[in-house]
Amino acid sequence: MSDADAFLRVTDVSKWYGDEQVLEDVSFEMDRGDVTVLIGPSGSGKSTMLRCVNRLAEAQEGSITLDGEEVLSPDTDVDELRREVGMVFQSFNLFAHLTATGNVALGPRRVLGLSEDGARDRAAAQLERVGLGDQLDSYPAELSGGQQQRVGIARALAMEPKLMLFDEPTSALDPELIGEVLEVMRGLVDEGMTMLVVTHEMSFARAVADEIVFLDDGRVVERGPPEQLFERPEKERTGRFLERIASHD
Amino acid sequence: MAGATRPQTVAERAADAEASAGRILLVAAGALFWGWLVVSWVNRWLGGPLVPVGDPLVSPAAVEAALGAVPVLAAVAADAAFVIELTPVLAQGTWLTVVITGVSLVCGFVIAVPLAVARVYGRFSAWLSLGYTELLRGTPLLAQLFVLYYGLNLASYVPGALSGVFARDVVWVAILGFTLNGAAYQAEYIRGAVESVDEGQITAGRAIGLSKVESIYHVVLPQALRYAIPSWTNEFVYLIKYSSLAGFITVPELYYRADQVATDTFRYTAIFLVLGVMYLALVLTASKVMERVDASVAIPGLGADRDR
After folding, report:
1. What is the DSSP track for B210-239?
2. Which residues between 223 and 242 in chain B have a beta carbon less than 8 angstroms from any beta carbon of chain A?
3. Is the separation of the CB atoms in B210 and B274 below 8 Å?
4. Which residues contact A80 (CB under 8 A, 6 or more apart)?
5. Kind and range of the H or E element at B183?
6. Inter-chain contact B301–A155, Cβ cutoff 8 Å?
């Protein structure tokens, strides 16, 4: 896993908001097709770390390479980078004025330059893929939270990304709607999608992750395969966190 | 929708009937008003095929005779005839009022959108936008018109292509004044709406690879401009009435015409009463039209929440 040409390599990334350090020398790496799950208490910097990968947040120190290219370099075309890195948000952030199809088609149409018809076809195919083939013309406000998040996933997939970032994709959902979103994500795992996921869904993390990275206070406390981290955590802090989470499950 | 199947109470049915009667009355009044205006304008443009240019569409004498024959209405017959006599002048003035308002509103909008966007998303440009808005909103509109007309004498600099479109070039000065001033007010309404669009929307746009400008154009503005419609309608309504200030720089719009006739005839009450009704009709039309526009572009599933 620590071979020289890892697909995504995060090395000693640090970030401050003003005087407050939110990330401190965070390092991990993943290969193509890997699923890495970032866990940790709220405020631990997981979401910020995720956003540094597609430069929605700017890291001040360290290095992030994606497919051999330095992401943090000032020469990096961020729009180009984001074309290749899909992102799914906690609060869905669907474009409120567009139908499900419109939401998914906007990127292919305006960013990839597909024709109107081509973009619609691609959108329909992606919505079909997340099980929303019957909601093509629905507006976000007409969909349930679970359906909205699946549109969000389809929107990211439509750009044919080589890496998918999930920022607490189920945290804003009612419990009975979480399953349908996790199911779609499992499907992506099965298809071999490379995924970096921030989540509190421990059973999901355990089932699909190749590696779990436990962050606390902006630092990587511990990382390793799920069996190791969940069964025999090396650090006492990891154990405490997992216990607290488990008691809420 | 669920309530539609419930049988109505007697009171509800009566209220419904009353509401639809009111609507029919309003539509009929609107049709009469706009019908009269459009026929008057067309008659003038075509050189008077219906009645000689400058004559009312119906003869004042005939109206006076008809009303005089009805006992209750006989008292107002002379006044009615006087008003009918005014109608060609009023129609002419209304044409300018409508054109000045419409053109200024559209041109102002074109300036207002970038002003609002700059205000929310710009750095240096936000200060420029703020400065412009405060200057134009903080000084009297009439003073602005005086500066443009008397101070800068812009009426003599109207470019050739525009010169002669209206009977007098000063109309362009009025349009410029209302455009610049209205843009500041429109920008404020649009800015509020732009700010109300959730920040996550632009983040999501950026996340699929749209640039900031593209995200604003494709994601933020289509939502913000919808949300802005109800408050923006205020500016539309104000502008219809404020356009009367053009009369003070000698633009022969509706107010100017009425004032002239009043000065000549001394029948101030009757004339300004009619003038008030004319503006009221224009304003009601504007707000009804914008209500329709708002409803027709409402985002499905969102409209109901927004009204609450």
Report:
1. --HHHHIIIIIHHHHHHHHHHHHHHHHHHH
2. 223, 226
3. no
4. B209
5. helix B170-196
6. no
Q: In the numeric block, which tokens belong to residue B69? A: 């024959």
ipTM field: 0.89
Return d(Cα A143, Cα A131) in angstroms, integer.
13
Q: How far apart are CA A230 and CA A182, in angstroms?
A: 20
Does B204 touch chain A if contact means CB atoms closer than 8 Å? yes
Would you say A45 and A22 are in contact if contact means Cβ atoms under 8 Å apart?
Answer: yes
Residue B130 is inside which H or E element, if any? helix B124-138
| Dist. CA A44–CA A50, nearest whole Å | 12
Question: Could you list the residue range(s) of the whole structural domain that residue A185 is in?
Answer: 8-248
Domain count, chain A: 1
At position A88, the amino acid (one-letter code) is V
B1 pLDDT band, cuts 50/70/90, is very low
* CATH number reported for the structural domain that contains residue A149 in this entry: 3.40.50.300
User: Does residue A2 sit within a domain?
Assistant: no
The string of pLDDT tens digits covering residues B119-173 is 999 999 999 999 999 999 999 999 999 999 998 988 778 777 777 777 788 889 9
State how beta strands A35-39 and A211-216 pair: parallel
Question: From the list A54, A93, A141, which residue is nearest B301 (CB)?
Answer: A141
HSE-up of B115 (CA within 13 Å, CB side)?
A: 26
Chain position carrying tokens 């989540």: A199
On whether residue A56 sits in a domain, the answer given is: yes
Q: Determine contact: B203 vs chain A, CB below 8 A.
A: yes
Cβ–Cβ of A110/B210 closer than 8 Å? yes
Mutate to test the interface with B, among A87, A95, A135, A157 (most CBs of B within 10 A): A95
pLDDT digits (tens, 9 = 90+) for A37-84: 999 998 899 999 999 999 999 999 999 999 989 999 999 999 999 999
| Residue of chain A whose Cα is closest to the Cα of B300 | A139
Distance CA A28, CA A23 (A): 13
Domain extents in chain B: 98-295
Is residue B176 within 8 Å of residue B154, measured between CB atoms? Answer: yes
DSSP A143: S
In eight-state DSSP terms, residue A40 is -
CB-count exposure of residue B113 (10 Å: 0-12, 13-18, 19+)? buried
Max Cα separation, chain B?
77
Residue A117: count of CB within 10 angstroms of its CB: 10
- DSSP 8-state assignment for residue B166: S
| Helices and strands per DSSP (H, E), number in chain B | 12, 0
Task: Say if residue B3's pLDDT is above 80.
Answer: no
**Class of domain B98-295 (CATH, top level):** mainly alpha
Cα–Cα distance between B204 and B207 in angstroms, integer?
5
Taking CA atoms, B149 is separated from A212, B167, B168, in Å, by 73, 16, 13
